[in-house]
UniProtKB/TrEMBL annotation:
Keywords per UniProt: Hydrolase
Signal peptide: none
Name of protein: Aliphatic nitrilase
All copies of domain CN hydrolase, residue ranges: 7-273
GO molecular function: aliphatic nitrilase activity
Superkingdom in the source lineage: Bacteria
Annotated gene: nitA
PROSITE patterns cross-referenced by the UniProt entry: CN_HYDROLASE, NITRIL_CHT_2, PIPLC_X_DOMAIN
EC numbers for this chain: 3.5.5.7
Chain intervals with Polar residues compositional bias: 311-325
Family annotation (InterPro entries): C-N_Hydrolase (IPR003010), C-N_Hydrolase_sf (IPR036526), Nitrilase (IPR023919), Nitrilase/CN_hydratase_CS (IPR000132), Nitrilases_CHs (IPR044149)
The organism of origin for this protein: Acaryochloris thomasi RCC1774
Length: 339
């Protein structure tokens, strides 16, 4: 792994075009083009940005949200599709690594999906949020361990999680043990209020410190007009406010640019990989500071399927054969052993 390089990264705080897959895709392509003019090599978009985050499920009871849920089905992204082709082409044109959140439709189900495109336009990973949170469980299915991968990209070793997946310490550890150099976080933004933004800051800075990696975190943004489009009740409109923290954090837990908490914009910073070594010299939680003789993680990276064919199963990849990370077809759990 190269720790001598510096790359330029950006996180987009941006509003969707509500109820329009094509409209939001155009905003994504425009943002990529704009970021490229600033020399950006890695661009991270918010959670399920295309076509839009299902805010309706947070402010409507299940019995009333059928119409909006169906509309989300109609506008959701299939993979592959013209949407993924267009984003891949933009990544290739601008030699940019792109992390994009989408509502993915797979036949009769929707998923909270993170797509990672390399700088040559290749779709390297399609990963699904392993556990939708609270109201989201009425909208999305569950992902599996196949997406808990750290990838070799044009900008370094890159991992990603969505929103409250960051409160699953074993999911974070799975990426840490694969030696991520850049972690990409995605949140919906414009929800819950200031407390959500404050919690997000603590979470992102802690992961940077614990993992000894850079964190590039993107949140969405809703205008006042968009809140009114989602819900007419003024009290519920207030719930769709705050909760934004678009930022870039160093391995020492320090913001590398002014975080964005309101409005649209790009958080941009240069990532000097020498800071990773500087941090890990003191505390490498998956290296000299670990105790795999006492504690280690078992991770099932096999993709789920409702159909098992007798021809056999695809092999599970053990990323870099980390002594702290064992991949096996067993439920993910933390194990302790007596010496």
């Amino acid at each position: 792994m190269d720790y001598s390089r510096t790359i330029r990264a950006a996180a987009a705080q941006i509003s969707p075009v509500l109820f329009s897959r094509d409209g939001t895709t155009e905003k994504v392509l425009d943002a990529i083009s704009s970021a490229a003019k600033d020399g950006v090599e890695l661009l991270v978009f918010p959670e399920t940005f295309i076509p839009y985050y299902p805010y309706f499920s947070f402010v409507q009871p299940p019995v009333l949200m059928g119409k909006e849920h169906m509309r989300l089905y109609e506008e959701a992204v299939t993979v592959p599709s013209p949407v993924t082709d267009a984003v891949g082409q933009a990544a290739r044109t601008h030699s940019m690594v792109i992390v994009l959140g989408v509502n993915e439709r797979d036949a009769g189900s929707l998923y909270n999906t993170q797509l990672i495109f390399d700088a040559d336009g290749t779709l390297l990973l399609k990963r699904r949020k392993i556990t939708p949170t609270y109201h989201e469980r009425m909208v999305w299915g569950q992902g599996d361990g196949a997406g808990l991968q750290v990838l070799d990209t044009a900008v370094g070793r890159l991992g990603a999680l969505a929103c409250w997946e960051h409160y699953n310490p074993l999911a974070r550890f799975a990426l840490m043990a694969q030696h991520e150099q850049i972690h990409c976080g995605q949140f919906p933004g414009s929800m819950v209020g200031q407390i959500f933004g404050d919690q997000m800051e603590v979470t992102m800075r802690h992961h940077a410190l614990e993992s000894g990696c850079f964190v590039v975190n993107a949140t969405g943004w809703l205008s006042e007009e968009q809140k009114q489009q989602i819900v007419t009740d003024e009290k519920l409109q207030k719930v769709l406010s705050g909760g934004c923290y678009t930022a870039i954090i160093s391995p020492e837990g320090v913001p590398l640019c002014e975080p964005i908490t309101q409005g649209e914009g790009l958080a941009v910073a240069n990532l000097d990989f020498a800071l990773i070594t500087k941090r890990k010299r003191m505390m490498d939680s998956v290296g000299h500071y670990a105790r795999p003789d006492l504690l280690r993680l078992l991770l099932d990276q096999e993709a789920w399927s409702v159909l098992e064919q007798s021809a056999g199963q695809s092999p599970v990849t053990d990323a870099e054969n980390s002594p702290l990370l064992t991949t096996a077809p067993v439920p993910m759990s933390l194990t302790t052993e007596a010496l």
